[in-house]
Specification:
Length: about 350
């Protein structure tokens, strides 16, 4: 009789274990939420899909099994849409708002024919990742995107018709780590630097070919990019000496400044950027020698100085201290010396 209780309990435990296993398996399979399935089907209906990439989006199928859709293994709710390079066009339906837990939306490399970015995207409060790059959007960037307070990644780059009226909204994206606005026309926003430098955790900033010029350089003596590790500012039209605030970005590992008509001597202040691994100063109007402070950049691996015809003098001996240097490009300058004798 003493052993009867374990004998009785054992089948009960096995039964409970099998129920739990079935529930876990169901969640792992990602059982689709019916409301979200219908929202996605209406979203599909508004799109043009000439390549039939969304053929798996069928009412009879579990939407967590559809191509490009990711669901939570725990709740079955749609959390990610990976729609990059699907050759999509047409209209982006506001039925996306019914995906309450969507945190990742990638619509990059599609063709929306100059349509504006939908302002309702600013109401998708769960978004942490938003990529609308190279998708054929045009018009003004909606300020409502500033409501996405949990956003970590925002890429609006390479949409040739986009512009901003102002960037006040961008300072509200306080958790943003990655921001790309390449090709977005920023020339109406004189205070771009003040707005962007209010993003405290920003790590990577892409502002290539944004029509920035000398009239848009901040009077600030500093920029509050304390975390910034990568800055891309190529193909603008600054036509001045490199502003001092840039040399306060002491966490930078990547600095890309080609084709900006920067002039003057290459500043000794570059030596403050001791974590630099990549420095591109190609195709500007610098003159004079390479500063001796280049020797402070012990992490530097790539140095590009090409097509600065007035850079002259001999390669500084301090360049020999840059022991990690793998690549130096200096064609189209008047530099002399043999790099192999220094390294």
């Amino acid at each position: 009789m003493r052993n009867s209780r374990p004998v009785i309990l054992f089948p009960l435990l096995c039964f409970l274990f099998s129920i739990i296993s079935m529930l876990c398996e169901a969640n792992t399979l990602g059982v689709c939420n019916e409301k979200e399935k219908h929202a996605l089907l209406r979203f599909k209906q508004a799109l043009s899909d000439p390549a039939n990439r969304l053929s798996s989006w069928s009412i009879n199928e579990n939407c967590c099994r559809w191509e490009a859709v990711r669901c939570s293994n725990v709740t079955g709710r749609v959390v990610e849409l990976h729609l990059s390079n699907f050759a999509l066009g047409g209209e982006i339906s506001s039925t996306l708002l019914e995906l309450e837990f969507l945190s990742y939306l990638d619509l990059s490399m599609n063709g929306f024919g100059g349509r504006p970015i939908p302002s309702f995207l600013g109401s998708m409060g769960s978004l942490r990742y938003l990529d609308l790059s190279s998708a054929g959007f045009g018009g003004v960037v909606p300020h409502q995107l500033g409501n996405l307070s949990t956003l970590r990644h925002l890429d609006l780059g390479y949409n040739s018709g986009l512009y901003v009226e102002n960037l006040d909204w961008i300072s509200h994206l306080s958790f943003l780590k990655y921001l790309a606005l390449d090709w977005v026309d920023l020339h109406r926003e004189v205070h771009w630097l003040e707005s962007m430098s209010m993003i405290p955790f920003l790590l990577e900033l892409h502002l290539s070919d944004c029509r920035l010029d000398r009239n848009m350089v901040s009077s600030l003596g500093y920029a509050n990019f304390t975390s910034l590790t990568a800055l891309y500012l190529s193909w603008n039209n600054f036509n001045l000496e490199i502003p001092n605030w840039l040399f306060n970005l002491t966490s930078l590992a990547i600095l890309s400044l080609p084709n900006n008509q920067f002039k003057g001597q290459i500043s000794e202040s570059f030596g403050k950027l001791k974590y630099l691994e990549f420095l591109n100063l190609d195709a500007n109007s610098f003159h004079g020698p390479i500063p001796t402070s280049i020797g402070n950049l012990s992490s530097l691996r790539y140095l590009f100085l090409e097509e600065n015809q007035l850079i002259n003098g001999t390669l500084p001996k301090s360049l020999g201290l840059v022991s990690n240097l793998e690549y130096l490009r200096a064609g189209g300058t008047s530099l002399t010396g043999n790099i192999s004798e220094l390294l």
